């Protein structure tokens, strides 16, 4: 159930918002539910807020070579290295 809107959305917007919400996981889902209600009044607001929050992902150009050359630091745990690599890849 779509629960962000304070005012009813049109049927098409409501479906889009629900489908969008269903695609979110972990950090993005937390971001979405913690967003202030007045910032998500309609579908366009939601799109704009999402773009503003995550636009850095399209601005940072990580190449395959960047990922290949990412090395584990001497005192870095394997799980910390994997987390670093995955966040770079994302």
How are the SSEs placed, and which strands pair?
Elements: H1 11-23, H2 26-34, H3 43-54, H4 56-59, H5 64-68, H6 78-89
Summarize the structure.
The protein contains 6 helices and no strands.
If you had to describe this structure to a student in words, what would you say it looks like?
There is one protein chain. This protein is 61% helix and 0% strand. 3% of the residues are buried. It has helices spanning 11-23, 26-34, 43-54, 56-59, 64-68, 78-89. It folds into 2 domains: 11-59; 62-90. It has 6 helices and no strands. The model is unreliable at 4-8 (pLDDT under 50). It is elongated and about 55 Å long. By secondary structure, the chain is an all-alpha fold.
Low-confidence stretches: 4-8
Envelope shape: elongated
Beta-strand percentage range: under 5%
Main sheet attributes: strand count, strand direction, barrel closure: none
Helix/sheet category: mainly alpha
Question: Radius of gyration in whole Å, from Cα?
Answer: 17 Å
Portion of residues within helices: 55-70%
List keywords for this structure.
single chain; 90 residues; mainly alpha
């Amino acid at each position: 159930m779509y629960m962000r809107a304070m005012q009813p959305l049109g049927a098409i917007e409501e479906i889009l918002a629900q489908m969008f919400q269903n695609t979110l996981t972990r950090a993005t889902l937390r971001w979405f539910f913690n967003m202030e209600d007045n910032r998500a009044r309609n579908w366009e607001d939601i799109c704009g807020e999402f773009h503003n929050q995550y636009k850095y992902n399209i601005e940072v150009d990580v190449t395959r070579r960047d990922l290949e050359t990412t090395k584990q630091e001497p005192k870095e745990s394997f799980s910390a290295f994997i987390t670093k690599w995955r966040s770079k890849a994302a």
